[in-house]
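Hello, quick one for you while I still have it in my head. A protein chain has come my way and I'm curious about its shape. I'm sending you its amino acid sequence along with the C-alpha cells. I'd be grateful if you could look everything over and explain what you see. Here's the protein in full, and shout if anything looks odd to you:
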Amino acid sequence: MVDDASRRTAGLIALDWGTTSFRGWLLDDAGTVVDRVRSADGTLQVSERADSSGERAAAFDAAFARLCGHWLQQRADLPVIAAGMVGSNHGWAEAGYLDVPADLADLADHLTRVPGTRVHIVPGLRVPGPDPDVMRGEEVQLVGALAETERPSTVVLPGTHSKWVDLAGARVTTFTTAMTGELYGLLLRDSILARLATEPAGPAGPAGDEVSAAFSRGLDVEAARGDERGLAALLFTARTFVMAGRLDGADVADYVSGLLVGDEVRHAVRGIPADVVAVCGSRPVASRYRIALERHGATVRLVDEDAAARGLWQVALDAALVPAPATRTTEELLP
C-alpha cells in the first residue's frame, strides 16, 4: 500500500507494458518509486479478443484501470507514461519508431498521446537498411541505465529478445536482437528436451549472483565445440548426455541455458570493444550474461530492473509531463 506521504507527493505513473507482462510504478515528485504492480497482463493477452481499434483501446483502458486504478483514486490527474509493446500495432496506440542513429534525449519530443486519456507512449527505436531491427521498451531502460552507471559503449538487455546496443555517449548508433530467451522457452516447453528437464532453470546463489554447475558446463561445451559442431548439434547433447548418464534431468534446463547464452555472447563480443559492458535486467538472468561476458574479458556492470522506471521518469521530465525538481535533463545526464 502507498502511505500518506507517498499519496501527497505522487507525481507519475510509469508503465513498462510488454508482450507477455505488465510492470507499473508509482513515482513521487522526485522520481522515487513508492509503489509497484506486476502482472501477466501482457499486450497480447489484453488485445486477443479485440476485433477493432476501438475494442482494443477499450480493453487496454479497462486493464489499466484494474491494475493502476487504486493510484488514480488518490490523485485522478496523475500523468501516465508508458513504453513497450503497448505502443505497437496490437497495443493501446501505435507510437512509431525513431531511426538510429538516434539520441535518447529525442524520445521526449516524439511521445504519442492515447486519445481521451492522460497516457503518453514512448516511441521505439528502429535500425533501417539491409539488416533492419526494432526495439520497444528497451529504449527507456537505456535512459535509466546510462543515468546510473559509468558510460559504457555497449549495453546488453537480456530477455525474451535480447538486445545488444552500441552507444556513443547517449546516442544509440545501432543494435542487434537475439531470440535467445524465446528459443529457450520453446525448447523447454515444446521440444524433446522438455521431456527430460525435471526442473526449470534458476540461479544457484540466494541473490542470483552465482550460477549452477550445469549452466557453466553449457558455457564450456559451447566455447569448446560451438564453431566445430554448431548450436543445433550441441543442443541435442542435452538429450544424449542424459541417456549416457552424464547429465541429470534436473540440470537439463540450466545446461541448455548455458549453451544458448554462450552462443549468443560468443558471437556478439566479436563486434564490441573490450571495455565496460552494462547488463540491464533481472539479477538471475543478468548474472548469467555477466559470467559469460567475463569469460571473454569484458568488465561488466549490472543494472537493476528498475532502470525502466528511472528512464520513464527522465523522459517524462524532458517532455514536461511532470514539474522539474532540482534535477538534470537527459541531455545533461547523458552528454
